Amino acid sequence: MTTTQTPINALILVCTLSPSPKASSSDLLARQVAAEFKEHQVSTEILRIADFNVKPGVLKDMGDGDQWPAIRQKLLSADILVLATPIWVGHPSSLAQRVLERLDAELSETDEQGRPILFGKVGLVAVVGNEDGAHHVIADLGQGLSDAGFTLAAQGSTYWVGQAMHTTDYQDLQQTPEVTANATGIATRNSAHLARLLKASPYPAG
């Protein structure tokens, strides 16, 4: 049996193409996810991938200044991984795709019982954009996270999309739409619950 007192933490990777300190709708939604996690006693850390030199490749360390290894260590220490991304031409951002590519290196990593090392972790997807495609992006990232070994909770995603062919961003809204706030609440609550379950009762070894 698990309780909300079980300490867990989440790493939130914001995959906007804009480096800090530029305002970002993806970062805004990520911070709202972090605020909701706090309500469930989940500590969080937010990193913006554009602020780091994450080299392309499928190895744990691509060398020559690659900063993914430090991010990877934070990921391995986290119980929950959140990928927050904008929609670009109907797809996740290139940086979100790069994160998935770097996670490919974990497929061959196992724990002392022979289980893939990411099996005990939960994935959550957060998406913003000014066009249709949120479900497609969530499907892409969710499948990628599942392949790497993450488990996704029921309704474990949140998103907002604006009117197609218009210029309003999520960060431009006067207030968060109720449906998005509700989705964020459900996704964080269920992800925290699932992470505690997996921590108390891991997947069986093969």
Topology diagram in text:
Elements: E1 8-14, H1 25-39, E2 42-48, H2 68-77, E3 80-88, E4 91-92, H3 94-103, E5 122-129, H4 134-148, E6 151-161, H5 178-200
Parallel strand pairs: 1-2, 1-3, 3-5, 5-6
Antiparallel strand pairs: 3-4
Helix pairs in contact: 1-5, 3-4
InterPro entries: Flavoprotein-like_sf, FMN_Rdtase-like_dom
Protein name: Flavodoxin
Domain NADPH-dependent FMN reductase-like: 16-161
What would you say this structure looks like, in words?
With 206 residues, the chain is of the alpha/beta class. It has a single domain (8-200), classed as 3-Layer(aba) Sandwich (Rossmann fold), CATH 3.40.50. Helices cover 35% and strands 21% of the residues. The chain has five helices and six strands; from the N terminus they run βαβαββαβαβα. Helix 1 (25-39) crosses helix 5 (178-200). The longest helix has 23 residues, at 178-200. It is globular, with a radius of gyration of 16 Å. The protein starts with 7 loop residues before the first strand and ends in a 6-residue tail after the last helix. The model has no long low-confidence stretch (mean pLDDT 95). It holds the Pfam family FMN_red. InterPro entries: Flavoprotein-like_sf (IPR029039), FMN_Rdtase-like_dom (IPR005025).
| CATH domain class | Alpha Beta
Kindly report the oligomeric state of this protein: single chain
Structural class: alpha/beta
In percent terms, what proportion of residues is strand? 15-25%
Q: How many strand segments? A: 6
CATH architecture: 3-Layer(aba) Sandwich
Unreliable stretches (pLDDT < 50, length at least 5) are: none
